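Q: Got a minute? One more chain.
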Amino acid sequence: MPQIHDEPASPYASSDQLAQQLRAIFRALKRRLREQADLGDFTSSQKAVLIRLYRDGAATASALARAEGMRPQSMGPVIAALETAGMLRGEADPEDRRQTLLQLTDVCRDQIREGRAARQDWLTDMIAERLSPGEQDELSRAVALLSRLVEA
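A: Always. Here it is, folded:
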């Protein structure tokens, strides 16, 4: 794996340089986390639908399409593939029986939870194994700074 920290950021690094370094590090971290536990051989659209339903709960196909910036016709094949894989099931909307509410199956929920736990365990282990207590304190301060960047 290529080293991302070839040139350590100096206290005088430009904002542009810091932004580039952060993006590279976050890409590599995301890739490493994804390697630890994955939802399988699903497309990015399929994964996005699964994660959205996990996070937000049941939704109609048209609501999912809007949320994902897709045409409703394009959402059909995504949903069909996920239903075939046993990840989704549809039930009539109790408020509008003409609509179908899509929700995750228990198997899918378990897979997502297990994947998240595996990624959390990996990151916890890497922090504990590769960083000294002082470096962990430094990382904690960096996390606080990064949190400020994404605050609304």
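A: The chain has two domains: 15-38+111-150, 44-105.
Q: Perfect, thanks.
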